[in-house]
Amino acid sequence: GSKPVANKLIADLPVTVTSSKRTRKLTASGGISDHWVGNKNAYAFDLGGSVTNMDQAAGQLLAKFGEQWDGGEVVRNYDINGYRVQILYRTNVGGPHWDHIHVGVRRSA
pTM surpassing 0.85? Predict the structure, then answer.
């Protein structure tokens, strides 16, 4: 499932999990959340910590996909091995992602 993929992505990051599954179904922009407990094809983590640690973690996450982070807004979707990986940080896309990094993994259709 999606949770082991998400776990592997965040395993070595210098941040802590502040949220994972929850009861709210929709994102702030109206989509079905990867966090929603009813979404059996997806899993998501919100990761928090100091700004320094979140910045380091954002850079590490993007490096896993061959990118170098420029310090700005992070709105990324990657397809890996049948899963869509979404990383959101320093953005209002999908809701405010300024005090945490969102890492969502959803099995591709």
Answer: yes
